[in-house]
Amino acid sequence: MGNRFQNTNSEQISWPQSKNISLAQSEQTPRRFAIIIGNNKYENKKLENCVNDATELAASLESVNYKVTLQTNVTCDEMHQCIRDFTDSIQANDFIIFFFAGHGVQWGNQNYLLPCGCKKLDSRDDMERYAFNAQTILDTMVEKEPKCIVFLLDCCREYWLPKHKRGDAVDQGLTPMKLSTETLIAFACAAGETANDSSYGSKNGTFTKHLLENIKIPGLDVMKLMQRVTRGVKKETRNAQQPYLVSSITEDIYIVPAETIQATKSTPTIRKPLSANTHNQLTREKQSYESAADDSATSQLVPSKGSDEMAHSTSNASVKYKLATAAAFRRKRALVIGINEYARHRLRYCINDAKDLGEALQRIGFHVSSAYDCDRNDFNRSIASFAEGTSSDDLTLFYFCGTGFQYNDDLFLMPSNYDDPYNGPDPVYLKHNAISAQLIVEQITDRSCRVLILIYDSCRCYAQTKIRTRGVAETSKLTSMRSPTETIELFSCKPGMNASDTSVNGRNSIFMGTLLEYIDTPHLDIEEIFQMVTASVRTQTRGCQIPERRSDLTKAVYLAN
């Protein structure tokens, strides 16, 4: 297939080339590098265990053949030099781990990492001069085109704290960072929480303690690894600290590949959407450790067997084990909302997308509520009615397809009667005429559902251009919703990209058409489904639209058993 896609409206869709979108991997085994930084000796609030964290993580990674750069208690100049030298050494196809333990601070929607010896920071100029912008570090590494970056931040977003904690996230504080492809960022805590500098029976911070317990397990992909870490941290802190991750990874990524997995010889676990006759056969190569429900047992690797159309299929024993250790639900409920008709523009496929998703969910046992082209009053009534019916053992899914706008750390969803004459971020108009996604989450989680799945097929700005898109996501402020419930979010595009309202099949957007291929596949957990959707949308649009997901799940979640 060439550079164009044709839909049934005879409309040619041209996707420009992007240098970072190729999924073809080199036959050469990726070099594995890590830079590990731990700072204790701050002038104002010394920490106790960051150096221990860095030293022990470095030793663990060295023991599994990583080349490690370890720096502890570094000043501003020393930290600048070691990061620059490390970044300069990165080559295409390298596997990179970045880890920082110490104080962090959020300022102006950016996350800054603090070296030792820095004085009190009172302004953005102070931050830029004496601290390190985490987004800038990541962007510089991405320019080297490594195979994958795992970016681990065991710190929070505020410096001046009592009782030896590593920083309090400010009230609206967790600022998810902008991702490139094949990047995972893990924060030690979510918004409004603290990252403890100690843990029970250990000389490590709580996050790093559980990271060390799991990071050397062969064949455990990084998403499952972070589920284990999240579960351990939440259990030890009684939910006072909750790790949080953001990912654009499109294939299985192993910190330590299992000897039985031919990771350097097989093709990536990325598939184009299959036909309706075959998508129910789809599965992924599964040779990884799964944790038991009590978080104490470790499963055995199960060899996979071949198939003509699938890369591999999982054995019956493996499937049974996966389901036995997955989250359990009494009911599955969903609310789908699609809006085509707006006062100042019209979208084409949002209602189709919402209806088709609702039908797919019904086929796998969901009770589905829906609303189409709803004004603000109907939108709010639909949310209130849906939230009222939620109970503590429910698997709950909310889907919105339409136009969105982000302002002041909140995502606003536009009802059909939204008609801001200025098309801009007027906070008063937004508050009274749009729907806050954060308030939707709070209404649902007030009922304490077991797991909440949020799918936003929209972008983060009000559509003003002549091309048909669902908005353009801002480049620096893509914000996730804060939720006490275990939550996974899927955005149809990353910051700085369009959520396209164009279609390949003539009925659904590219994003939804792809999601429908996978959503009702048995024995695929939601992380796997979202990973496949991300890979396929990225491939179909030649990197012009890349979905992004965020998660604090502690167990696998299966939509179709």
TrEMBL record:
Pfam families: Peptidase_C14. GO terms for biological process: proteolysis. Residues 30-157 form the Caspase family p20 domain. Residues 268-281 have a biased composition (Polar residues). One of its GO terms (molecular function) is cysteine-type endopeptidase activity. Residues 1-26, 268-313 are annotated as: Disordered. Belongs to the peptidase C14A family. This is Caspase family p20 domain-containing protein.
